[in-house]
Design goal:
The structure is a homodimer of 142-residue chains.
Chain A lengths: L1 H15 L5 H12 L4 E2 H11 L5 H13 L3 E5 L5 E5 L5 E5 L5 E4 L2 H13 L3 E12 L7
Parallel strand pairs in A: 4-6
Antiparallel strand pairs in A: 1-3, 2-3, 4-5
Bound molecules: manganese (II) ion (MN) (2 copies) and zinc ion (2 copies).
The structure holds a DNA duplex (30 and 30 nucleotides).
Amino acid sequence: MALNLMETLKGYLKEKGLKQTRQREVIASTFFKTDKHIGIEELLEKVKNIEPSIGYVTVYRTLLLLKECGLAHQRNFGDGQSLFENAGEHHDHMICIKCGKIVEFEDDRIEALQEEVAKNYHFKIVSHRHEIYGACSFCQTE
Amino acid sequence: MALNLMETLKGYLKEKGLKQTRQREVIASTFFKTDKHIGIEELLEKVKNIEPSIGYVTVYRTLLLLKECGLAHQRNFGDGQSLFENAGEHHDHMICIKCGKIVEFEDDRIEALQEEVAKNYHFKIVSHRHEIYGACSFCQTE
DNA sequence: TCTTCCTTGAAAGTTACTTTCAATATAGTT
DNA sequence: AACTATATTGAAAGTAACTTTCAAGGAAGA
Ligand SMILES: [Mn+2]
Ligand SMILES: [Mn+2]
Ligand SMILES: [Zn+2]
Ligand SMILES: [Zn+2]
């Protein structure tokens, strides 16, 4: 999988006249191996273990690049910082306001009703976000 | 309506040992008269027409106060700044990414399905946000 | 190898708040 | 009305999380 993703990235770079670099290789491959929602600083810590000279800005720019070529999604769950995740099937999120746990969900019935609502207002959907905030199963017994 | 709202605010102030001031009166009454989603700067401009000496910070703090006593909701539609609106029936939003128009919607079926999803994950809902981004009816003919 | 254009990291800049602080304004008590 | 304790205000300073700038260094086609 990660190999495929890297190939996709390389194809995009070539197509846009951009260059392959050690930094992009390290940052992207580390990101592709991550299976959760990760912030810039946190990803920076990981890549620094491999290549200590890499800076915040390069991680930031590489994540924007991955987003641009459709390999990453940027999320904002209200705590002020962006989290990135590997692109995949569409889904929405439930966020625990006590422990920060993020649970992904997807419900085709909700998606369909959403389409219906938009249609009623002659509104053409480009994207959406549906976030549920509350207490996860572990955090309910205070 | 606005009178009732002002009374509610005054009750809250008294209850918390806070004070009634000319600034709070002007800011709150101006806000209560606003029927759209309004930013701090924009509300500041309005109140300055009545009381030019009022500053940004007082508007900011008063909006937090209104939020605290349940008379205002704070929204973030992704453009970086907060918008406030008078509290009322729960609803979600569709935001036009071309002209910025905000359309409110509410669908009990979606709300119910959302409850169902949360229940499946043993997740206790505290709040949620469901935002649809796209083109409003006016902005579809580019 | 040459040369052009891209990339990098540090530092500076930006935005939208958020906090601090000294002066001033409430409002309950004489 | 005067007194007093506490809250409020506005200007200015501080913060957080990016975002842009720029000079030095690194790809990659010729
Ligand atoms: Mn996700
Ligand atoms: Mn609304
Ligand atoms: Zn939790
Ligand atoms: Zn529009």
